[in-house]
Amino acid sequence: MKISTKGRYAIRVILDLAEHNTGQYTPLDDIAQRQEISEKYLESIVSILVKNNLLTALRGKGGGYKLMKEPGEYTIASILRVTEGSFAPVACLEQQPNRCDRVGFCKTLKMWEGFQQLIEDYFEHITILDLMDGSQGADCYMI
User: Fold this and answer.
1) Rounded to an integer, what distance in angstroms lies between the CA atom of residue 6 and that of residue 117?
2) For 25-65, what is each residue's pLDDT tens digit?
3) How confident is the model at residue 139 (pLDDT cuts 50, 70, 90)?
4) CA distances in angstroms from 92 to 78, 87, 102, 104, 113, listed in the order given
5) 34-48, 66-80, 86-100, 101-115: which has the minimum mean pLDDT?
6) 37 half-sphere exposure, CB direction, 13 A CA radius
7) What CATH class does 5-67 carry?
8) Is 76 helix (H, G, I), strand (E, B) or coil?
9) Rounded CA gap, 18 and 133, in Å?
10) Do 28 and 60 meet the contact criterion of CB atoms below 8 Å apart?
11) How far apart are CA 66 and CA 30, in angstroms?
């Protein structure tokens, strides 16, 4: 799985809102300026985040975006799921149930499923609060 700019920027937007939380709505141009990301590109990202109830939006004067939850309630996995879709490392795992013709006898399926589970578990244990604190969830999985 390769994380696109959409997924990476979505994390940065939520982190920015958490770090600059005043209780008021934050204009998109403020976020874009701080993060050095095109406001036009951010519009498409925040619309996905609003649609999936990760952010709330207010139009007009005094409008902008706010977090819907506390920073510790946002897992990186929840953000990436809405922006990237599946964590599947191979195409056959993208749909459930798996409809691959080889599913009954594939000798590599369990390996790919295990890899996908590692990715999901890792990102599920890192929150926006972890990123704010600088801990970044690094202590979650020490192999």
Assistant:
1) 22
2) 999 999 999 999 999 999 999 999 999 999 999 998 889 99
3) low
4) 22, 12, 9, 12, 10
5) 86-100
6) 22
7) mainly alpha
8) helix
9) 11
10) no
11) 13
Task: Give CA–CA dist 127/39, Å, rounded.
Answer: 25
Please report how many Cα atoms fall inside a 13 Å half-sphere around the Cα of residue 136, on the Cβ side: 3
Task: Determine the Cα angle at 119 with ends 66 and 142, to 5°.
Answer: 105
Segment (H or E) for 9 = helix 5-19
pLDDT of residue 87: 86
**Other beta carbons less than 10 A from residue 88's beta carbon:** 19
Query: Which one-letter DSSP state was computed for residue 68?
Result: S
Q: How far is 32 from 17, CA to CA, in rounded Å? A: 11
Six-digit token pair at 105? 């006898």
Burial (0-12, 13-18, 19+ Cβ within 10 Å), 118: middle
| DSSP tally for the chain: helices H, then strands E | 6, 2
Peptide bond into 27 cis (omega under 30): no
What is the widest separation between alpha-carbon atoms in the chain? 60
**So where are the chain's domains?**
5-67
Helix (H) or strand (E) holding 142: none
